[in-house]
Specification:
Layout: E1 7-11, E2 16-23, E3 26-35, H1 41-45, E4 53-57, E5 81-83, H2 100-106, E6 110-113, H3 117-127, E7 131-136, H4 144-153, H5 163-166, E8 172-174, E9 176-180, E10 184-187, E11 193-199, H6 204-212, E12 215-221, H7 226-230, E13 236-239, H8 246-263, E14 268-271, H9 273-282, E15 286-302, E16 308-319, E17 328-334, E18 340-345, E19 350-353, H10 368-379
Helix pairs in contact: 8-9
């Protein structure tokens, strides 16, 4: 006998998917995206770049290695909810300290299993990232009309500044380095460069990679001004990843970056939203993508070396390469759709990438970017 549904996912076009709920109970509305990664579900759920989004996992075995605090990219999950094909089974991993369902419930995040994620992914590709309402009720009582109406009322991410919601409340220092067997995370106690990292929704592993590259890292809130940044007398400035519409965040971020570009020769390195912020400061524009890039198997070509890197990506907006001004070079492109994935300023140590070089989804093809940033500070 089939199970009675305890959760449902309602799309704004009226399509409804029924399944089994796990994690927290309740209801949430968000944009729906899909992620093709085979690993890293905990890192994905705690990535601040997923604010305002429910994530559909195309890989069916989600939850099989449990959860551990060591893998959190921020203090709590930021993604609004989770959609999977199969309900999580009992975890089997020596690092696991808590089951995925319990981890989600303790952090107020709703999940639904038993969904035809292939069909749902096709719908996302065809419609663009749809607005949805996700509900989990153990008694299986759903007001479908109200859920569809809630999905339709969701304002969407265009024009929405979410960096303010996920940034740090005040500045702090970071010295933890990347995880290494068998010691685990280390500490950078002999830094060679002073870096200010502007937090638009920074992932912890980005900060670890900076520390591992020899940096003393001071993290500042997204709204930090040019004077705030320069008060720390940095050798370089890092612009972090983050969620929302880059044009909205740019209202306060772009003037600070333009100050750096106009008044200093400091090296600047940006990732994801930081890449988009740098592009806007240089005079380019950003565009909303149909369904974005979310996964750990994205091929990106380095246009200057011809090398192809397998990367991790998470973005729903992209820099419009046709708007890059003279003196700004396109350095990386997606081999999926040709969209922009990197830029640099000619004859200056200023560069950025759309993908996530810190995520190491198996390959570590893009770690060299942190070393490049460190080398640029050593030359200044």
């Amino acid at each position: 006998m089939p199970f009675a549904p305890t959760a449902c996912l309602a799309l704004a076009d009226g399509t409804v998917f029924y399944g089994q709920g796990f994690g927290a109970t309740g209801q949430t509305t968000a944009e729906l995206c899909f992620n093709t990664a085979m690993t890293g579900y905990q890192e994905i759920m705690t990535d601040p770049s997923y604010a305002g989004q429910v994530v559909t996992f195309t890989f069916p075995h989600i939850g099989n290695v449990g959860t551990t605090p060591e893998d959190d990219e921020t203090a709590d999950p930021v993604a609004a909810g989770m959609v999977v094909k199969w309900l999580p089974t009992q975890s089997s991993n020596w690092r696991a300290v808590q089951e995925l369902s319990d981890w989600l419930a303790a952090r107020g995040r709703i999940a639904i299993g038993g969904i035809d994620t292939r069909r749902l992914t096709r719908a996302i590709r065809q419609q663009g990232a749809p607005h949805v309402a996700l509900s989990h009720d153990p008694e299986g009582k759903f007001d479908i009309g109200a859920l569809v109406a809630a999905a339709r009322a969701f304002p969407g991410l265009e024009g929405l500044d979410l960096a303010r919601e996920v940034t740090c409340a005040q500045s702090y220092r970071w010295s933890e380095t990347r995880w290494a067997w068998p010691e685990g995370y280390g500490t950078q106690d002999a830094p060679r460069h002073k870096v200010v990292a502007v937090d638009y929704g920074a992932k912890r592993n980005i900060l670890r990679c900076l520390a591992s590259a020899g940096c003393e890292v001071t993290v500042l809130p997204a709204t930090a001004s040019y004077d705030d940044v320069m008060a720390h007398q940095p050798d370089g400035v890092f612009l972090s990843n983050g969620p929302g519409d880059p044009a909205a965040t740019g209202a306060y971020a772009v003037p600070m970056i333009q100050g750096l570009l106009d008044k200093t020769d400091l090296p600047v390195f940006g990732i994801c939203l930081g890449h988009q912020m740098l592009a806007l400061a240089l005079g380019a524009k950003t565009i909303k993508m149909n369904h974005g890039h979310h996964g750990a198997n994205h091929p990106v070509k380095d246009m200057e070396t011809g090398k192809v890197e397998i990367t991790s990506m998470n973005h729903g907006f992209a820099v419009d390469s046709q708007t890059l001004p003279d003196g700004v070079l396109e350095t990386h492109v997606s081999l999926f759709d040709g969209s922009n994935c990197g830029l640099r300023v000619a004859d200056r140590p200023v560069f950025s990438v759309q993908h996530h070089p810190e995520a190491s989804p198996g390959p570590q093809d893009s770690f060299y970017l942190f070393e490049r940033f460190a080398a640029s500070m050593a030359r200044v």
